[in-house]
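Summary for the funding panel

The consortium committed to producing paired sequence-structure records for every protein in the target list. Below we show the first two records in order, beginning with the earlier of the two.
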Amino acid sequence: MDTKRTVFPARGLPYLLVAPQLLITLIFFIWPAGQAVKSSFEAEDPFGLSTRFVGMQHYLRLFSEPAYLASIGRTAVFALAVSIISMGFALILAVAVNRLVRSASAYSTLLLWPYAVSPVVAGILWWFIFNSTTGILPFALEQIRIRWNHQLNGTQAMILIIIAASWKQVSYNFLFFLAGLQSVPQSLNEAAAIDGAGPVKRFWTIVFPLLSPTTFFLLIVNLNYTMFDTFGIVDATTGGGPNQATNTLVYKVYTDGYIGLNLGSSSAQSVILMAFVIALTVIQFRYVERRVQY
């Protein structure tokens, strides 16, 4: 079989074509990341008039600070809960829509709409729903003798941001799970049904293993989402409170750097957060991917 190969008329043309993307990556990722690493080794006054090199002082101070260590554990709980809930609900919805013969496209469109909502708007929406004074859910919970006030109860505040962040991410996960389900050969399900396997057994023994590449991809995306993209949700719903109960790592970078004006510590926290995400991704590719069936 004869294969065609693209030949560029000039040697510099391929580099010219990728130059805009490389420039964007350099300006908006490489340069800020390099500046953060540089600032993490410096002590700078709030006005940026003077700096001095302090070495690993910021890093050593962070890992001896109880508030920062607590935020690491808090972020781990938040990331795990959001990933499990959002992926679980998305898979259930994808299976339900995949079984529809009619109106499947209409259901898919409606389920994708929440993803178009910005994190801040999603946070405000759930803040209104769970508002202890005017919200409908606290009123319903009072009927079963559960008093809801996330402004005073740290556990309830964490539940609120988990629900808001999960709701925002379900649509994204749903889209990929639905695409994965539609790519599963129907002949495999039919053969298993002829052998006497029920719907549940067919799903767990045939369909779900074939979804493992999609599940692995979404696991990485969801963990990165909880680490970086949930700042707007936390800021709009709880502001890190009450009593720092929802002050996750990404939000602590903001409070220490932008509000507290401790630029060196904030830069060190952003470097540590980036290192956590990179290490987590490497571990997933190194160990979790072994269970993925392509």
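The next record, for a separate protein in the list, is shown here:
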Amino acid sequence: MKHHIGPYRIYILLFLLVLISTEIIWSWKKERHAYEVKETLANLAVFAGFQFSKYIFAGYQLAVLGFFAALSPIKLPHNGWIFLLTFITADFIYYWFHRVSHVWKPLWAFHLIHHSAMNINLTAAYRLNWFSAIVSPLFFIPAALLGLPTNFIVISYVLNLGYQFFLHTEAIGKLGAIEKVMDTPSSHRVHHGSNPIYIDKNFGGVFIIWDRLFGTYQPETEPVRYGLTTGFLSHNPFRLVMQGFINWVKPKTSPCGKVSSTPPFSASPEI
């Protein structure tokens, strides 16, 4: 099995490198300045660490889902309709996982790194915390208890994150009617914005309908300022990964000596 999987991973990596190279050329020709050397290197370092972490936590993730799947009295079959149901369910769960990650400090500790990028480009897509796999499967326990096949849940989540890779770009403008149903680069640029009008908006992974239903949708109406509300954080991948946890356990002290309820380097004033 490993002999079959290995080459595909190489092909996927090469495909991603081609897309990134194409975007770099586009950015250079259009003078969009979407890439900054030090930040791009930091993104790639974080990506490498994240890939390594997947090997470490894969068994844990499958064990969590498998344990609760065994408790379910329902065992849904493996077919196309059940996979579609699983995919939609996983996207719905992702919306709430993502939204809670912006308003609850312990989860923001994992998510801060993703919003610390000062530029939006394809390499920023996988600016993900190396320890996020500890908490992500916990949110998909309800899907396992509903009897949805464990492998369908895992595949749906992987496809969800894979789709989001393509959302991290300025090379694609608004997409008309598609914006009403699907998450798009325009909608996701809004999500990464530190503009007051954009904070805590557009949490959807594949579908934007959840944001429309639950009042968190915001169209792209003004130029987006990327990054945390406090500005630049670091190019050190270890600090990027750990800063959220440091903020969580070390309360921010205001100039007058009082402890603030808002942690430093937040993307949202409500966190």
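Regarding this second record: Residues 38-249 form one domain. The chain has a mean pLDDT of 90.
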